[in-house]
Design brief:
This protein has 15 helices and 18 strands. By secondary structure, it is of the alpha+beta class. It has a domain of 69 residues. It has an 8-stranded mixed beta sheet. Strands 3-2-7 form a 3-stranded antiparallel beta sheet. Strand 17 and strand 18 form a beta hairpin. 45% of the residues are buried.
Length: 449
């Protein structure tokens, strides 16, 4: 299928002012003051087609614009990280103008010290005819074992797990995103023409700062979806890869990528074995060079030599960093300094970026592309149309509102100069063209003249 994809990232936030740690609502309100000042709301669609807003629990959240490829998404997601970091700088400056010093820290992780979890939600456009329950049943083993490729890792109370989300997920499917915390959310909210499309809303993954892990996460999933979302129906070979107890396997793999897992037919395999099977079936559908990276990671893990891919797999890079620090300072496994180092790894503009600059973490994106993506949308998706509308309406100082599939101008002058309202629908996320939108923009241009 001709797809688009995107990622929603919930960030951890803390702030201090005058030696006092601010509450989450206080920190969020101060952080979003520049957004409210510019957009008159803490929920804003940006000129690049993405969305910046406050989520439940006072978490800053950024949703990337619709992207065509996993590589495009890497650029868009990295731009989102930079936008959040830049927002913190602007908010500190705005507070300083009022005589208040505020220091913000933003974290791209999935758990806090109190045991709360917040998500990284992946979105994939699929055909409306896809039977969601059957598809997720076949996709579950892949999502459970995918953490060996792209887990962010967590050191907690003396134990290292390769995924931060694994201990917080309980079901394959659920309409809830906060209580049951499923691998896939069933809420039928396509944000597109509901007669043609469905949005596969995946909650199973960790947020990634290591770009190769982020690429593997979404790129491998795109490839496997080509085996599921087909006019002739899912590939029958996937039925032989189903796990007997996915929830138990999720936690087993998080503690040992080579743990023995039981399949529904009684066979026993490892997560690496299962990922190898998916690679063999779906690798030909992967983006150029991704299958080679997927293979290289599985080869290293199967050989018991994860350090061979420490520059590419986030949990391996973090584990190496933590173990070196522990050994150098002769620390016990439950020493709090290890938990502090773990957290520092995820701070925006912090330790992971230092590792990247030193070559200890590989980078895939080009800085110029990321800088451009902060203000310009990806090519070939609905985000471009949305961006054109936002730019035109803002330049003419019109009241307007935007959602994923609607663009509304609220005070467009009619032929007598009276303000009227007009809404344009963008029902196909794959299209950057809309004759109706072009007509509206031409009308706005004529009115300005």
């Amino acid at each position: 299928m001709d797809r688009v994809l995107g990622v929603e990232t919930e960030y951890g936030l803390s702030a201090r002012s005058g030696g006092r740690r601010l509450s989450a609502p206080e920190a969020a309100e101060l952080l979003f003051r520049p957004v409210v000042a510019e957009y008159r709301s803490a929920n804003a669609f940006l000129g690049n087609g993405g969305r910046l807003y406050l989520d439940v629990g006072a978490h800053p959240e950024y949703a990337t614009p619709e992207c065509r490829t996993a590589r495009d998404l890497l650029v868009a997601e990295r731009a989102g990280d930079d936008l959040l970091a830049g927002l913190a700088v602007r908010a500190s400056g705005l507070a300083a103008e009022t005589g208040v010093e505020v220091a913000f820290r933003l974290f791209k992780n999935n758990t806090d010290s109190f045991g709360n979890s917040y998500g990284c939600h992946e979105n994939y456009l699929v055909d409306r005819r896809l039977d969601l329950a059957s598809a997720v049943s076949l996709l579950t083993s892949f999502l459970v074992t995918r953490q060996v490729l792209c887990g962010a890792g967590r050191w907690h109370r003396g134990e290292f797990t390769i995924s931060q989300r694994a201990d917080h997920l309980y079901a394959q499917l659920s309409a809830s995103t906060t209580r049951a915390r499923p691998l896939v959310n069933t809420r039928d909210e396509p944000l597109a023409d509901p007669s043609r499309f469905r949005r596969l809303h995946v909650l199973a993954g960790d947020s990634n700062l290591a770009e190769p892990s982020a690429w593997l996460k979404v790129g491998s999933t795109l490839a496997v979806l080509e085996l599921l979302d087909r006019p002739e129906g899912p590939d029958a070979r996937l039925a032989h890869l189903q796990l007997a107890d996915p929830a138990a396997a999720l936690r087993q793999v998080a503690r040992d990528p080579l743990a023995s897992l039981e399949l529904a037919d009684g066979r026993r395999v490892t997560a690496v074995d299962l990922q190898r099977a998916y690679l063999e079936l779906a690798g030909s559908h992967a983006e150029p060079d991704l299958a080679a990276l997927w293979t290289r990671v599985l080869d290293a893990l199967a050989a018991g030599e994860p350090e061979r891919v420490a520059t590419e797999v986030e949990w391996v890079a973090k584990l190496r960093l933590l173990e070196e620090f522990r050994d150098r300072h002769h620390l016990g496994a439950d020493d709090l300094r290890l938990a502090q180092l773990d957290l520092a790894f995820h701070e925006l503009g912090g330790l992971s970026r230092v590792l990247e600059e030193s070559g200890a973490l590989a980078r895939i994106t080009e800085p110029a592309d990321v800088e451009r993506a902060k203000t310009q949308p990806p090519v070939g998706t609905r985000a471009s149309a949305r961006s054109r509308f936002i730019g035109a309406a803002a330049r003419q100082h019109l009241r307007f509102s935007v959602d994923w599939q609607t663009c509304t101008v609220h005070d467009r002058p009619d032929s007598q100069g009276r303000p009227t309202e007009r809404t344009v629908l963008l029902p196909d996320p794959r299209s950057d063209q809309s004759a109706e939108l072009d007509d509206l923009l031409a009308t706005l241009h004529r009115s300005a003249d």
